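Inverse folding, one chain.
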């Protein structure tokens, strides 16, 4: 007994097999040669790229990193970056304090907090262009 088998191919399957070559992904994609997810160094552009390059040199042009900690003594005053000649500084004299002591810090010698006596010194900081 012989039997013939017929397969009916649905129209949607035909379309999947015979799609136009122009709809395929281009062979020269940048991701084709690179495996994995690109890093920030590879894909960052503009100001983000300049910031990443500055961070590699140890610079922090936009103060995005946690500030360095200083003892606040006369020998190791708190360094306050400033683009002008004076800056308003808030001193949280003790860790548990809920009130901040505000005072103006001027360029020149280190100044002391009027409440706790910590030393603060202004340092010029140039913003990137
Ligand atoms: Zn203080």
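Residues assigned per position:
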């Amino acid at each position: 007994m012989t039997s013939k088998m017929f397969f009916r191919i649905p129209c949607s399957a035909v379309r999947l097999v015979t799609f136009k070559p122009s709809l395929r992904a281009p062979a020269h994609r940048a991701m084709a040669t690179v495996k994995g997810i690109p890093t920030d160094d590879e894909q960052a552009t503009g100001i983000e790229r300049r910031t990443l390059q500055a961070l590699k040199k140890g610079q922090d042009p936009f103060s995005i990193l946690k500030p360095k900690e200083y003892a606040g003594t006369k020998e190791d005053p708190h360094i306050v970056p400033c683009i002008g000649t004076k800056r308003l500084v808030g001193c949280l004299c003790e860790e548990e304090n809920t009130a901040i002591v505000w005072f103006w810090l001027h360029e020149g010698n280190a100044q002391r907090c009027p409440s706790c006596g910590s030393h603060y010194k202004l340092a010029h900081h140039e913003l990137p262009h």
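DSSP finds four helices and five strands in the chain. The longest strand covers residues 86-91.
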